[in-house]
Amino acid sequence: MNKIINASFSNDLLIGVLALQGGVMEHKEAILSLGASAREVKRESDLEGLSGLIIPGGESTTIGKLLSIYSLSDPIKAKANAGMPVFGTCAGLITLAKNFKDNDDSILGLMDFVVLRNAFGRQVDSFEADIKVPVLGDDPYRAVFIRAPWIESVGDGTRVLATYKDDSYDCDRIVMVEQGSLLACAFHPELTDDFRIHRYFLDKARAWKESLSKKGEGQDEWSLEMVDDQAQEG
Ligand code: GLN
Questions:
Q1: CATH code of the domain in which 90 resides
Q2: Does 3 map to a domain?
Q3: Among 42, 114, 164, 224, which residue has the fewest nearby CB atoms (within 10 Å)?
Q4: In a domain, 21, yes or no
C-alpha cells in the first residue's frame, strides 16, 4: 500500500502519542503519513492543543506506573471526559479498561469493558490474522497480535467493532471497540502499512477539533453581542 496516497488530513490536526514506554515511533509515522501532525506526550503541558491522543502498546503495568509518576492520569482523564478522542492499542487498550477480569486495578478506566490481559498469550504469544472490521469497509484487515489481551464483555455504551474467531474454543473474541470518541484495539495497527484504523481515529479527532472551533466561534459571537449590549446600556 502506498503511504502517500493515504494522506488526507491537514497538518494542523495535531495528534499526541503517549511516549512513556512502548511503540511510539510507528504511531507517529502512521499519523504523519496520513498528513496530520504528531507530538510525543511526556508531560501535562504536551496535552495542550491536541485533537486526539494515542496510547501505544508496550507493557500496561509499566505504562500505568509511569502515568502516575509523571502525573498524567488525571489530565488525560479530564481531556477525555471533555471529549478529546483517545485511542489505545494493545497495552493502551488495557490502560483504558474500566474493569479487569482478574483484579480491579484499572489504570485510566475510561471505557466500559472487562479486559483479560495476555489472554491470547497462553495459546500463542504472537500471531497475525485477517479479521473483519465492518466500519473500515469490506476488505479484511490484517491484525498483528503480540501478547494481546481480549475483551471479555462490554457495557451498554461500548460498541464492538471487530472480533477474532478463536478456533481453540470455537468462539469469537472481542478485539476492537469504541465508546463515543474513545477507541481501543487489542492488536497493533501501527505495525502494518494499512492505516485504515488510524484514519478512522483521525476522523474522530478532526470531528472533535471542528466541533471545538464551532463552539469557539459561537462563543465569540456571544461575547461580542454582550459587549455591544453593555455598550448600549452604558
Ligand atoms: N501483554 C501486554 C500487557 O499486558 C500488552 C502487550 C502489547 O502491548 N503488545 O501490557
A1: 3.40.50.880
A2: no
A3: 224
A4: yes
230 occurs within a structural domain = no
For the chain, the domain total comes to: 1
93 vs 115: CA distance, rounded Å? 8
Give the cell for residue 42: 511526556
Nearest residue (by CA) to ligand 1, atom 5, is 91
Phi and psi for 141 in degrees, rounded to 5?
Answer: -110, 130
pLDDT tens string, the chain, 234 residues long: the values are 444 445 689 999 999 999 999 999 999 999 999 999 999 999 999 999 999 999 999 999 999 999 999 999 999 999 999 999 999 999 999 999 999 998 768 999 999 999 999 998 755 689 999 999 999 999 999 999 999 999 999 999 999 999 999 988 899 999 999 999 999 999 999 999 999 999 999 999 999 999 999 888 755 444 444 444 444 443
Query: Which atom of ligand 1 is found nearest the CA of 22?
Result: 8
* Residue 8 near residue 204 (C-beta atoms within 8 A): no
CA of 212 to the centre of ligand 1 (A): 33
Taking the C-alpha atoms of residue 40 and residue 234, their distance in angstroms, rounded to an integer, is 49
| Ligand 1 midpoint to CA 25 (Å) | 17
58 CB near ligand 1 (under 6 Å): yes
Spacing, Cα 148 to ligand 1 middle (Å): 6
Active site residues: 90, 188, 190
Task: Look up the domain containing 158 and give its range.
Answer: 14-224
Q: Whose CA is nearest to atom 9 of ligand 1?
A: 146
Q: How far apart are CA 61 and CA 53, in angstroms?
A: 19
